[in-house]
Write a structure and sequence with these properties.
This protein is of the alpha+beta class. The chain is built from eleven helices and eight strands. The termini are far apart.
Length: 302
């Protein structure tokens, strides 16, 4: 009995009592009492999210709600109240074997709602527990057909596949699956250690490959720079001067340079050294003295 029917019942029963006390006709008192009992039983109220499945003489008559509705006493009865709000059901699979025979424990949650109150009331006795058991069965089937790597890395795809599998099986019950989310995938501790070592080795391999590629790129850049400096000595001199400038930015720094490096960075000195080398190569060599010639002494000169 809801608040409205209770109020109606109290009003008519109170009227019947007052009429009896006022010594009004007994028929009026009986009629008021019967009306109060009838309306108290017949007037029902469903909330916004509720639906009432009504049977009349054992057969489906109507689905009422939300709001007020009236039942016919003795003939009508409410078979079940259906809640059409979104509900959640937690389910899990323990020690389920994946496609590559790895035992895992998987926890998941399904969001669902009843979209057809008539089917939910007439086609299945307890749709709430049926949804949970069907979700658990579908989860085990999905785990058995998926490798461990897919469960760990392709979580969104696994959620979508599980939603499709559960929704297809329970659609005939008037239930819709809104979403399914896998919350946790637990694997044995020894397997976690092995996977950790494998991931570490893979990261080290990738780091070595990246380092080798970087060294190859740097070496190629050096080769290109060497070719460019060979074609343009002035560029090499400018580069050397820039290196000295960069290293001399720090205060109090002392730079020791060989004289040959300083001369190499001076174009004038380099040109002078080149001319001197050419003059030395063009000058004739001094003649050697004859083998029979004697050098006069000091006494002979006089």
């Amino acid at each position: 009995m809801n608040a409205v029917s209770a109020l109606i019942f109290i009003v008519f029963i109170g009227s019947a009592v007052l009429s009896y006390l006022a010594q009004l006709p007994l028929a009026l008192t009986i009629i008021l009492a019967l009306i109060g009992i009838f309306l108290g039983y017949s007037v029902k109220m469903a909330q916004q999210w509720e639906r009432a499945v009504i049977l009349r003489l054992g057969k489906l008559h109507a689905v009422r709600g939300p709001g007020l509705f009236i039942l016919v006493p003795i003939f009508d009865q409410i078979a079940v109240w259906i809640d059409q709000r979104i509900r959640t059901s937690e389910f899990s699979a323990e020690q389920a074997l994946t496609k590559d025979t790895v035992p895992v424990n998987v926890d998941a949650i399904v969001f669902w709602m009843v979209h057809d109150p008539e089917s939910a009331a007439l086609k299945i006795a307890d749709y709430n527990s049926a949804v949970q058991r069907m979700a658990q069965t579908s989860l085990r089937e999905m785990i058995g057909s998926s490798p461990l790597s897919a469960l760990l890395s392709e979580r969104k795809e696994a959620d979508a596949a599980l939603k499709q599998a559960i929704g297809t099986k329970i659609a005939e019950w008037g239930v819709t699956v809104n979403s399914v989310e896998i919350r946790d995938v637990a694997i044995p501790a020894n397997l976690q250690d092995a996977m950790s070592r494998q991931a570490q080795a893979e990261r080290e391999r990738q780091a070595r490959v990246i380092l080798g590629q970087a060294e190859e790129d740097v070496a190629q850049k050096f080769v290109n720079a060497a070719k460019l400096y060979a074609q343009s000595p002035e560029a090499l001199q400018l580069r050397a001067m820039n290196i000295i400038y960069e290293t001399s930015k720090e205060r109090g720094a002392t730079i020791l340079m060989p004289t040959s490096m300083v001369d190499a960075m001076n174009p004038g000195a380099a040109a002078f050294a080149l001319n001197m080398a050419r003059n030395d190569s063009a000058r004739p060599a001094p003649a050697a003295p004859a083998s029979g010639t004697s050098v006069p002494s000091a006494g002979n000169r006089s």
